[in-house]
Write a structure and sequence with these properties.
Elements lengths: L1 H48 L3 H14 L5 H12 L3 H14 L3 H17 L3 H14 L4 H97 L20 H29 L9
Length: 296
């Protein structure tokens, strides 16, 4: 049993030694790659200082691909993009640098510049968070504190403006609804007014028609007057001229009998008197004594 334990212990030591050797080799390789990447980054910085952006961009990309531990390469490339107003590419490289960096100072600069990108894009809430992250890595940086205060102020103004815009939108919606209601009410009133006007027009037409009928009736009188005037003219024509004896023509007066009616009455009265006289004569004959005369 003791031999077996010793054997296991011996194998464990061998494995540890092998792993340590591999780690040491990896570290050496990583350091070598990091050194090469750093040298390439130096060349990229030199090209950028000579305003050769195309060459510097290619060198920075080469340095980034050479070593993942090189945070300076993506950071410097981010600054190059930022100076050329390529905000999307700039933000990507600053973010990459902040995640790769082990030194707090490099992290601070990366998040600070990320905040600057957000400020340029007017994304004030994200800028506030980026500046806060930068201050966590370097609380004494005055520039970051100033930028954070500015980002908060801009965010507050934006929120106030949004509230004002919302209030204006609500007021506009209310005004639209009110105007719509007023228009509908005005339309109803106009329709009612048109109906009233139509009724008034019909009533006026009826009144005008009645007045016209009455006018027509009233105009009949002048025609009669004209006829009367015509009769007067005829009578004037029939009147004799001065010096001539006027023709006498009896005209029956109201409640006065004509000659024929008087003649008829006189004849009737004579007939009645004749009848009365005959009756009187008959009575006288009856009262006398009648002599009996024979006829020889």
């Amino acid at each position: 049993m003791n031999k077996i334990k010793v054997l296991f212990i011996g194998l464990g030591l061998v494995t540890t030694i092998v792993n340590a050797q591999e780690d040491t080799q990896t570290l050496r390789e990583n350091k070598k790659l990091l050194k090469e990447s750093t040298n390439i980054t130096y060349d990229a910085n030199k090209a950028l200082s000579q305003n050769n952006f195309v060459a510097s961009e290619a060198e920075y990309r080469k340095a980034i691909s050479k070593s993942e531990a090189n945070a300076a390469a993506p950071y410097n490339l981010g600054r190059a993009y930022y100076n050329r107003n390529a905000m999307a590419e700039s933000f990507t490289r600053f973010k990459e640098a902040g995640e790769k960096a082990e030194a707090k100072e490099t992290k601070h600069k990366s998040y600070h510049n990320m905040g600057n990108v957000f400020m340029r894009q007017k994304e004030y809430q994200k800028a506030v968070e980026a500046y806060k992250q930068a201050l966590r890595n370097n609380p004494t940086d005055d520039e970051t504190r100033y930028n954070l205060a500015l980002a908060k102020e801009m965010l507050k103004n934006e929120q106030d403006q949004n509230k004002n815009d919302q209030n204006q939108d609500q007021n506009q919606d209310q005004n639209k609804d009110q105007n719509k209601d007023n228009q509908e009410q005005n339309q109803d009133q106009n329709q009612n007014g048109d109906q009233d006007k139509d009724k008034e027009g019909e009533q006026k037409d009826d009144q005008n028609k009645d007045q016209g009928d009455q006018g027509d009736k009233g105009q009949e009188k002048p025609e009669e007057n004209k006829e009367g005037e015509g009769d007067k003219k005829e009578e004037q024509k029939k009147q004799p001229n001065p010096g001539e004896e006027p023709e006498r023509k009896e005209r029956p007066r109201p409640n006065q009998l004509s000659k024929q009616q008087i003649q008829n009455l006189l004849e009737a009265m004579q007939n009645e008197e004749k009848k009365v006289q005959e009756k009187i004569d008959a009575k006288k004959v009856k009262g006398q004594k009648i002599k009996n005369e024979k006829d020889w």
